[in-house]
């Protein structure tokens, strides 16, 4: 897939994995729903590939959803705002802290875009009061305004007029989805990207999540879940129960840059679970394996592992 626009730097985004994940979606979807959209990387990629032309973008982080909505619906306005804030900073790191304080008072999404572009590793961090508290990256000033505008305009071209935006609890979203929808579910506290937003972490219970997936199965709604993963010998998150009748696919992300610096050979792997309905729609898995020359491990419903190479 050609390079896609990405105005929002966001740790835990599936942007770099989107083309791999989309291989396991149907070729055409009436509507793609992301209950934990983050930067909506999967929706952006799906639109570019013409998999779907209708999207429901939801995330409990309301300023993030409002920022996405501005990017899609009012690209010039948000690009102009970012340009103004970016040039105000000059070489003064205190400017970042002033913007951060203003954002925590107002939740203004245009301020949020600058913070995400300038903060360390694009990592969203909140304190116990729910206030954004990530520090600035002192080695860089954030995305250049011209490049940011190009990325904003690119996302707007792909998604404008095709989306609804909400900041609901994921269970409320799943209660409203339709049989012809495809649901891509990426809870932000699982996986191997280190994205732990405390507002989600305390609010999502494993048992509740499993019940929600059981209900999707009962309604025969197709879905895919990015959930657990591993880096070297270290695992992240709980595996989903076999009773859900999901197919687990392990996708090799690459080698950990931090481990490489330390002289270690650690490979990062993300898990993708397909519902039985979704699995019936996907392309031939053998072609995927041969094309990528990667090893995928499938967890079958009976609990036995088989390795395909």
Short overview:
With 309 residues, the protein is α/β, with parallel strands linked by helices. Helix content is 39%, strand content 18%.
What global shape is seen?
globular
- Largest β-sheet summary: 10 strands, mixed
Strands, total number? 10
* Low-confidence region ranges: 191-202, 286-309
Structural class: alpha/beta
Question: Distance N terminus to C terminus?
Answer: 23 Å
Which percent bin holds the helix content? 25-40%
* Helix run count: 13
Q: Report mean pLDDT, rounded to a whole number.
A: 84
CATH topology of the domain at 74-155: Adenine-specific Methyltransferase, domain 2
Order of helices and strands: HEHEHHHHHEHEHHEEEHEHHEE
The CATH superfamily label of the domain at 74-155 reads Adenine-specific Methyltransferase, Domain 2
Which percent band covers the strand fraction?
Answer: 15-25%
Architecture of the domain at 74-155, according to CATH? Orthogonal Bundle
CATH class of the domain at 74-155: Mainly Alpha
Describe the structure.
Helix 3 (62-73) crosses helix 6. The chain has a domain at 74-155: Adenine-specific Methyltransferase, Domain 2 (Adenine-specific Methyltransferase, domain 2), CATH 1.10.1020. Strands 1, 2, 3, 4, 5, 6, 7, 8, 9 and 10 form a 10-stranded mixed sheet that branches. It is of the alpha/beta class and 309 residues long. 39% of the residues lie in helices and 18% in strands. A hairpin with a 5-residue loop joins strand 9 and strand 10. The longest helix has 15 residues, at 75-89. It is built from 13 helices and 10 strands. The radius of gyration is 19 Å and the shape is globular. Mean pLDDT is 84; it is low at 191-202 and 286-309. This is Site-specific DNA-methyltransferase (adenine-specific). Its EC number is 2.1.1.72. It holds the Pfam family MethyltransfD12. Belongs to the N(4)/N(6)-methyltransferase family. It is an enzyme of class 2 (transferase).
């Amino acid at each position: 897939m050609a390079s896609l626009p990405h105005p929002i730097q966001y740790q835990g985004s599936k942007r770099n994995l989107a083309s791999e994940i989309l291989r396991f979606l149907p070729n055409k979807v009436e509507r793609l729903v992301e209950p934990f959209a983050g930067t909506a990387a999967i929706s952006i990629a799906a639109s570019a590939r013409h998999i779907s032309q209708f999207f429901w973008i939801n995330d409990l982080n309301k300023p993030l959803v409002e920022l996405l909505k501005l990017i899609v619906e009012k690209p010039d306005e948000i690009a102009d705002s970012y340009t103004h804030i970016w040039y105000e900073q000059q070489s003064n790191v205190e400017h970042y802290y002033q913007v951060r304080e203003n954002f925590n008072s107002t939740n203004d999404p245009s301020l949020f875009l600058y913070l995400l572009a300038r903060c360390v590793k694009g990592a969203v961090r909140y304190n116990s009061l729910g206030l954004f508290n990530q520090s600035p990256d002192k080695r860089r000033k954030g995305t250049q305004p011209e490049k940011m505008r190009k990325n904003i305009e690119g996302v707007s071209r792909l998604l404008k007029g095709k989306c609804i935006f909400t900041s609901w609890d994921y269970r409320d979203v799943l209660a409203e989805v339709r049989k012809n929808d495809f649901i891509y579910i990426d809870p932000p506290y699982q996986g191997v990207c280190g994205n732990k937003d405390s507002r989600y972490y305390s609010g999502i219970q494993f048992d509740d999540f499993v019940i929600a997936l059981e209900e999707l199965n009962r309604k025969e709604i197709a879905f895919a879940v990015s959930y657990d993963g591993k880096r070297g010998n270290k695992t992240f998150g709980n595996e989903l129960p076999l009773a859900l009748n999901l197919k687990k696919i392990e996708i090799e992300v690459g080698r950990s840059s931090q481990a490489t610096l330390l002289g270690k050979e650690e490979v990062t792997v993300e898990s993708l679970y397909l519902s039985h309905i979704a699995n019936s729609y996907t392309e031939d898995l053998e072609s995927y394996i041969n094309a990528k020359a990667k090893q995928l491990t499938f967890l079958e419903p009976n609990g036995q592992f088989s390795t395909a190479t």
